[in-house]
Amino acid sequence: xxxxxxxxxxxxxxxxxxxxxxxxxxxxxxxxxxxxxxxxxxxxxxxxxxxxxxxxxxxxxxxxxxxxxxxxxxxxxxxxxxxxxxxxxxxxxxxxxxxxxxxxxxxxxxxxxxxxxxxxxxxxxxxxxxxxxxxxxxxxxxxxxxxxxxxxxxxxxxxxxxxxxxxxxxxxxxxxxxxxxxxxxxxxxxxxxxxxxxxxxxxxxxxxxxxxxxxxxxxxxxxxxxxxxxxxxxxxxxxxxxxxxxxxxxxxxxxxxxxxxxxxxxxxxxxxxxxxxxxxxxxxxxxxxxxxxxxxxxxxxxxxxxxxxxxxxxxxxxxxxxxxxxxxxxxxxxxxxxxxxxxxxxxxxxxxxxxxxxxxxxxxxxxxxxxxxxxxxxxxxxxxxxxxxxxxxxxxxxxxxxxxxxxxxxxxxxxxxxxxxxxxxxxxxxxxxxxxxxxxxxxxxxxxxxxxxxxxxxxxxxxxxxxxxxxxxxxxxxxxxxxxxxxxxxxxxxxxxxxxxxxxxxxxxxxxxxxxxxxxxxxxxxxxxxxxxxxxxxxxxxxxxxxxxxxxxxxxxxxxxxxxxxxxxxxxxxxx
Amino acid sequence: xxxxxxxxxxxxxxxxxxxxxxxxxxxxxxxxxxxxxxxxxxxxxxxxxxxxxxxxxxxxxxxxxxxxxxxxxxxxxxxxxxxxxxxxxxxxxxxxxxxxxxxxxxxxxxxxxxxxxxxxxxxxxxxxxxxxxxxxxxxxxxxxxxxxxxxxxxxxxxxxxxxxxxxxx
Lengths: 576, 169
Hints:
The structure holds two protein chains of two kinds. Chain A has helices at residues 40-44, 52-56, 64-79, 85-111, 126-136, 145-160, 181-209, 240-271, 390-399, 403-416, 426-456, 510-514, 526-531, 543-551, and strands at 2-7, 16-23, 26-34, 225-226, 237-238, 285-287, 290-292, 302-304, 307-309, 328-331, 345-346, 378-381, 478-486, 489-498, 501-508, 572-575. Chain A is an alpha+beta fold. In chain A, strands 3-2-1-16 form a four-stranded antiparallel beta sheet. In chain A, a hairpin with an 8-residue loop joins strand 1 (2-7) and strand 2. In chain A, helix 4 (85-111) runs parallel beside helix 8. Chain B is of the alpha/beta class. Chain B has five helices and five strands. Chain B has helices at residues 24-31, 56-59, 86-94, 103-112, 138-165; strands spanning 9-14, 43-49, 64-70, 80-84, 119-125. In chain B, strand 1 (9-14), helix 1 (24-31) and strand 2 form a beta-alpha-beta unit. The longest helix of chain B has 28 residues, at 138-165. In chain B, 57% of the residues are buried.
């Protein structure tokens, strides 16, 4: 038996430690430990509920929009505020923009390195890369030999400088890399193109959010105004001309997803067909859903449907209720927190965040999976561990019999000649992220067009301020929940308001579900479960572990952000 | 929306204000405007927070970048660090891979895309406390005036550099 420690897992947000037990090259046990404590809830108590979004959007750099969205929604839910249709449309546009931008960046910048061997791109023949490009995506403009030769020269200069920088913590040359050299070069070229492109798409956030990079939100709507024929335009108002300009950015996003991201994804998946048998994990999926078409209180009309799928059963979904205290509950059986005597789990309305560390004194070599071992709590739905994220959303969409989900899944799997059960795997999760990106990009233009139509027709209201003043709020304490789908999965905020102030605030982030440690009954979380049975080629180069963990796009939030002199962010991989 | 007309010097405050001293750079950039009267459109101030690659578009096309950050270099808390060009990149190369939202990684990627400003400066304050909580520790709070003065100096230095190098300032 061999014990592997990967700490920290690199190319993620925040700090995650994985310990895996290997027996004959196969993982037979794994624990996932969040090694930093994030106590944002403590900061929010006693504050004005209308300001909570501004604090929550700073939890981390990746999830700005989604935390603000969940936050304003939980206050609106508590106070019974409904928002005008334009507010939902603008929120949908912000949400979908974030989803498309984040998924493309995750794929090329963080996850692709698990499948492409970047230095090996130097060995490619640029003409072969050009031929490959034309074969997988004939319409993509950058497909000449000269283009790929230029990209290769850029990479060579970078490698020759001796500063691998962003590429230094990888296992280049690992035998589990299997792409031909020209595919590595093609993927590296697209990595650069994706970075260039994402500079454009974030302008959508800046346009609606008023300021970049921390967009403004508002309880009751969105803080945007539109210039129409009867109003005067100023630098802060949005015009039809401006909205039409944004349409071009969205069209570019659709082109990039269809012409570059999806073909690359299918190319890579086709070279790693064995990965459709590994990394499936729990097989239980949960999505809160989002992109409301008729208000947030009508989940039946969300573009991303809400529901739970159990045991990989694609024929039906179970309904979900975030307010029902019997459904979502968080336990701390293996987490470094304490609950009052006799209580094993709590609904987020009554959630407690009382840290008590009783693990080994750092630096330690191993954590004990039989005791408490993580700062992440263990949320469960009706006592069952759940996976959330792109695969959960696609599976819930598929099981909800939504044709557009079935179409994108069917086309991709048909191309690969894979069965639908291939979704339940590491590569299936990575595929699902791309497939939902293509849906999001299409929805983005549809939502933008609806907004343009409203504004053109003179419908310009963006906020309902009737209940803005706390003197209009109920005199008795109230509670509410707000939710969205972060790129990484279901995100929920729960609030209690008393005397106009926040009495309790609990956030259950997607990575709390996925990075969950075991619960009090010993059931593993999603990462832990997905690692079971993985075969590894070399224990001291845990590329296979990274592939599966990165397929979830972990975000352990609150990345401390300081520059350190000692290089301590280098992954420590220990085999003991 | 276009990058024509953008100020040649960007002062970017980064860090997480929910993690105590980690937010030093953000606190600094918020206090910069009272210094900026005589910079006359050549300097833009931006609160970058914990955003990483989303800031790529903001730093592209600049001649100079002044980064304000917390810098844990092992000095006494509250020490003001000033680093220039290669020294900034050197720091960023070391700490750039574990976290997506990292200023160092942002610089590395900008370098790869050939969009790194010619002149890069960093003013950092050595942190004391990086735990969850709003507000700066006593030594970091006390270092703010000195750090602002250092920031003003490096901005002036950047402007001087731009005039001499014939850039559009």
